[in-house]
Every structure is written in C-alpha cells, then in structure tokens.
Amino acid sequence: MTLAKIVYASATGNTEGISEILEAAFEELDIDVERIEADDADEDTYEDADICVLATYTDGDGERPFDLEDFYEELPEQDLSGKVFGVVGSGDSELYPDYFCFAAIDFDKAFGETGATKGAELVKIENAADDEDEERLKAFVKALVEAEA
User: Fold this and answer.
1) What is the pLDDT of residues 61-101, one digit of tens each?
2) Dist. CA 92–CA 5, nearest whole Å
C-alpha cells in the first residue's frame, strides 16, 4: 500500500493544522499516512515513503525553522528517486511581505536535488488554513497521489 509521510514544523500551530488537513486528505484517498514533527525527522525519514511531504513556516526574515535546519542540510544528499514530493508553506505576507514562504521555497528547491518527482506545485498559505486553503490542500494531495500511481 502507498505510504505518505508528512514532516512538519510549527511554531504557532498553523503548520501543524495544515499537516492535519493533509493527513485527513490522504486518509480519504485510502493512503497510509504518517505525520512526523520536525524534531523527530532525520535523513532516513522518507526512506520507506512513496510520497514525501514537507510543511513548514518561515521564520523572521526568510529563515527556515531551527528544528528543520539539519533536515534541510541533509535533504539534497538523499536519493529519493522513484518517490513523489510536495511542499506546503505557511507565512504572513502582511508582516513579512519580502519573505513570504521563503522556507517552503528553499525546501521545494532542495527536493529537486533528490531525484524525487515533483507531484504538485508548492502551496503557500497565509497564516492558518481557511476553508479555501483546505480545498487547495485536498487538490494538492490528490495531485501527489495521482503522480505516485
């Protein structure tokens, strides 16, 4: 059976909520899914996954979350050939208009170096996900599942 793994970092709870929406969307499509907090993720996290998802916020002036920094540094060295990936970012374009979702953009690029196939375009969410965002996230998950099939 297909396994999706969602690695997420959340400071305010927004990205954790996004990861929960993603988890439910995968479950609706009968995909086994595992959510992993950034502190518990390491270079082997995606080893047995078919679909690799990363959900992150952007800290301060465009920085990646501290608890994902090592994971980010190791990601391009991973061989994720044959796997599908997708990235979701949350941010605040009002407070940080010049750095909106920069961490997600960084991860999207890093995944590109792993040999994995990009299954869906990067999704950027303003703070917490609303109903419209939830629909976008469901479409994101559907695209990942279809790309993996």
Assistant:
1) 899 999 999 999 999 999 999 999 999 999 999 999 999 99
2) 25
DSSP state of 89: E
**In this structure, what token pair is assigned to residue 33?**
């899914």
- Tokens 């208009």 belong to which residue? 97
20: amino acid identity, one letter: E
For residue 130, count CB atoms less than 10 angstroms from its CB and return exposed for 0-12, middle for 13-18, buried for 19 or more: exposed
Contact call for residues 127 and 90 (beta carbons, < 8 A): yes
Cα 106 to Cα 8: distance, rounded to the nearest angstrom:
14
Place of tokens 């499509």: 29
12 token code pair: 């305010």
* Token pair belonging to 79: 């061989």
